[in-house]
Structure formats: structure tokens, C-alpha cells
From TrEMBL:
Its cofactor is heme. It is a single-pass membrane protein. This is Cytochrome P450 734A1-like. Keywords: Heme, Iron, Membrane, Metal-binding, Monooxygenase, Oxidoreductase, Transmembrane, Transmembrane helix. It comes from Dorcoceras hygrometricum. The keyword Membrane applies. It is found in: Membrane. Belongs to the cytochrome P450 family. PROSITE patterns: CYTOCHROME_P450 (PS00086). One of its GO terms (cellular component) is membrane.
Length: 461
């Protein structure tokens, strides 16, 4: 572990040119040890062996063919407190019950009903940006924070619906909690430190209590209005869907108020940062490559014109936009790796995997593998997705920005829909380029993000 920390420290301290070959920086341990041992090797974390697997055929066994023999490993205690004890961390029958309850909220047809709300949030943000522009018609903004605020509005609406204002206030508390966690994430780990009554720990404990107290109060308030709900009251927000499941099974509930609290925390953490990171990296890439920015703008203006906001009928027609988002997710996936643990002794390919062995799948490295993506794997080339994912890569398991199999990210449709809508509306109104102060420094802070921010200069069309 000491060697791993040293490799990461050296890699992150080095400056990065405007290159998309980021594996040596972001997954430095994998890049270093692969050159020595090959693509499959074992790292010991204390007494736990962790096998690195990057062969798509073996990954298919882990996620699809033999998924019942592997489970998601537990997140570190600090991260689990932030992400909630919801779909991200649940296992077995309870995970399956929760997934079944929550899934309908994220069906494409239900999400399409929320497009007017997404448009409204985006229009307000773009109007504020336009008002800030100087007489020269340009304005510089650090887009990660800007996108987080926009996405937070949408996630709060999807989660809380008519209780949006109360839900937004709760999410703001969770955002404060996340800031404290991010600070701790980069500090030297001292076992048991999170239990010490330091000022920051006490603040985190108080935030956790306030978040739980506020969510339970909101849930009780919504439960008291169950008699007012009708079958055709659409779209269903996530809170309503979960409360209905709680009320239906009073004797043997499939989901409890405490479960609902944890799922709300999970949706905020996963939904907010996955979508805002996708929007950030896509904007950075389009700023780097003005020819693709113009090509995407031409498509948006052809499909939607310069004045009409994109509708649910327009979104599927934005083919170039879909290619750009896929290429952004390939080069800069939100999660750079994922881990599974063997539940029993099992066989994986020609290997015997003992019970308890952890399997690390280096998503970022697979997305940058020349044997799977050809010689231009480090180049921004959305055209590779012109005929879909199946024709872009040599194995379908080599593209997995949202995971794969039964545990594929439940919010994938929401993230892609919101990203398409947001970028399309920006392209209708502005051109943009990297600010002179931009430093290309991809870094992992729970998810892949620009370490020094992403300042972008916007100009009115």
C-alpha cells in the first residue's frame, strides 16, 4: 500500500500537457505494474489479495455470466456515510427489492415528462450567464461548480417533486458534508480518526443528524398526503414512488423510512457528481476541439433552430451529440475503476479465484487500450461512435462508463438526457473556449474531476 501511495503521489504532482493519455497520472499503479507484470497482477491490501482484470471476456464473466458468484465490495466508512446505504452499497435480496421499486422513476418515458423542468433550470442558468457578460460579450466561469448547481436542481426535482424546495435545502446540507469528506479524503489516514471529537468531525456528525432529521420529517409529511395521490398523477418523483412502496407493504414493507433516507442520499451523491462531471469534461473537450463544437452546433440548430428549446422529440435526433458524449465518457469516465469480491471459491477463465479475493476492473485503462480501440485510443474522435458502440470497439465489455450487468448505473438515462439537453442549449446561445488559466489536471477525488477546475470563456453567438 505504501508503494501504491508513493506512485499516486508522484504522478499527481507532475504537470500534465494537453493530452488525453491520462492513465499514467490517474491509474499510476496500474500503468507502472502492468509494464512489469502484464495486465493481470495481484496487489495485497493488508491480508486481502486484489487481482487486476482488464480482459473484456473475463469482465463479462464477472458482470454477466457468473455475476451471482461476485458482489460489490464495501466502500470505505467515510465514503459510505456520504453516498448513503442505498443501491450503490446494498447487496442480495434487499438490493433487488430496492432496484425494482426505484427503476420506474428512471425509465426513459418518465424522464421525458421531466424535460420541461430541466429546460427551465437550464434557461435560468443561461440567462444569469448572459446577464454577467461584459460589453465585449464574453464571460469566464469555472464550469464544474456551475454545472453542479444546475444538476442539483434537476436531481432535487426528480427525487422530491412537489417537495422540491425542502429537498433542495437537504441536498445543500449534504453538499456541505461532502466538502468535509473531500478534505479528509486527501489527508493521511489515521485509523479511528473519524471517531475523535475534533471540530470538523463534530460538524460532520451534526450535518448527518440534520440531514436524517429533515428527510424523515419530509417523508412523514408526504406520507400524510397518500390519500390525495391518484394513479395518473405523473410524473412520479422518486420520493413518492418509495413512499407508496412503504405504505403498500405496511405489514411487511419492502422499504422503510430509514431506507428511503439512505436512497435519497445515494441518488444525490451518485446523480449529482456523475452528471456534472460528464458535463464538465464534455465542455472542456468541445472547447479544445472547436471543429466538433461547430459540428454539434450545426446539428442542434438544424434540429431545434436557434430559438426553440429542445423537446422530447428532438433529443433522440441529436446523433452527433450522442457520439460526443460517448467519446467524453470513454476518455474521462466518472469512475476510473470498480471492484468486485468473490463470494465463493470460483473459476474465472483458467484461474481459480478463492473466496474473498477482490477483483479490480480498471475502467479507465480499458477505455484507453490500443488492442481494443486501435491506434487513436488517446485521441478525441467522436466519429468512432458513428455506428454505435458495437462498431466502435472490438469487444462490447470494453466500454462501461456506467458499469455493466444487473448493477449498471440506474441513473444512466437521466445523466445522458440532461447532458444532451444542457449542451444543446449552451450551443444554441454561446461559443466557448478554454480560459488561458486552464490547467489540464485530471485527478481522482472519489470520481474523476479536473483538479484545478475548468475555467471556460463563453461568448454570445
Amino acid at each position: 500500500m505504501k508503494e501504491l501511495a508513493s506512485l499516486n503521489s508522484i504522478a499527481s504532482s507532475q504537470s500534465t500537457p494537453f493530452s488525453h493519455n491520462i492513465v499514467p497520472r490517474v491509474l499510476s499503479f496500474y500503468h507502472h505494474w502492468k509494464k512489469i507484470y502484464g495486465s493481470m497482477f495481484v496487489v495485497w491490501f493488508g491480508a486481502t489479495p486484489r487481482l487486476t482484470v482488464s480482459d473484456p471476456a473475463l469482465i463479462r464473466e464477472i458482470f454477466v455470466l457468473k455475476s451471482e458468484f461476485f458482489e460489490k465490495n464495501e466502500s470505505p466508512p467515510l465514503l459510505r456515510k456520504i453516498e448513503g446505504d442505498g443501491l450503490l452499497s446494498l447487496k442480495g435480496e434487499k438490493w433487488a427489492h430496492h432496484r425494482k421499486i426505484i427503476q420506474p422513476t428512471f425509465h426513459t418515458e418518465n424522464l421525458k415528462l421531466m424535460i420541461p423542468m430541466m429546460v427551465k433550470s437550464m434557461e435560468e442558468a443561461l440567462r444569469e450567464l448572459s446577464d454577467k457578460m461584459s460589453d465585449l460579450g464574453k464571460f469566464e466561469i469555472d464550469v464544474p461548480n456551475w454545472f453542479r448547481n444546475i444538476v442539483e436542481d434537476v436531481i432535487a426535482n426528480v427525487t422530491f417533486g412537489s417537495s422540491f424546495e425542502d429537498g433542495r435545502a437537504i441536498f445543500e446540507l449534504q453538499a456541505q458534508q461532502l466538502c468535509h469528506a473531500n478534505e479528509a479524503y486527501h489527508k493521511f489516514f489515521v485509523p479511528g480518526y473519524r471517531f475523535l471529537p475534533t471540530e470538523k468531525n463534530k460538524k460532520c456528525w451534526e450535518l448527518e443528524k440534520e440531514i436524517r432529521r429533515s428527510l424523515l420529517k419530509l417523508i412523514d409529511g408526504r406520507r400524510s398526503t397518500t390519500t390525495q395521490w391518484t394513479r395518473d398523477s405523473c410524473p412520479n418523483d422518486l420520493l413518492e414512488v418509495m413512499i407508496k412502496a412503504c405504505v403498500k407493504g405496511r405489514s411487511h414493507p419492502m422499504i422503510t423510512p430509514n431506507d428511503i433516507v439512505e436512497e435519497c442520499k445515494t441518488i444525490f451523491f451518485a446523480g449529482l457528481h456523475t452528471t456534472s462531471n460528464l458535463l464538465t469534461w464534455t465542455t472542456v473537450l468541445l472547447a479544445m476541439y472547436p471543429q466538433w463544437q461547430e459540428q454539434a452546433r450545426e446539428e442542434v440548430l438544424r434540429v431545434c433552430s436557434s430559438r426553440d428549446t429542445p423537446s422530447k422529440h428532438d433529443i433522440p435526433k441529436l446523433k452527433t451529440m450522442g457520439m460526443i458524449l460517448n467519446e467524453s465518457l470513454r476518455l474521462y469516465p466518472p469512475a476510473v475503476a470498480t471492484i468486485r469480491r468473490a463470494k465463493v471459491d470460483t473459476q474465472l477463465g483458467n484461474l481459480q479465484i478463492p473466496l474473498g479475493t477482490e477483483l479490480l476492473i480498471p475502467i479507465l485503462a480499458i477505455h484507453h487500450d490500443s488492442t481494443l480501440w486501435c491506434h487513436d485510443m488517446h485521441e478525441f474522435n467522436p466519429a468512432r461512435f458513428a455506428k454505435g458502440v458495437a462498431h466502435a470497439v472490438k469487444h462490447p465489455m470494453a466500454f462501461m462508463p456506467f458499469g455493466f450487468g444487473a448493477r449498471r448505473c440506474i441513473g444512466q438515462n437521466l445523466a445522458l438526457l440532461q447532458a444532451k439537453l444542457a449542451v444543446a442549449m449552451i450551443l444554441q446561445r454561446f461559443t466557448f473556449e478554454l480560459a488561458p488559466s486552464y490547467q489540464h489536471s485530471p485527478s481522482v477525488q472519489m470520481l474523476l474531476h479536473p483538479r484545478h477546475g475548468a475555467p471556460i470563456v463563453f461568448r454570445k453567438l
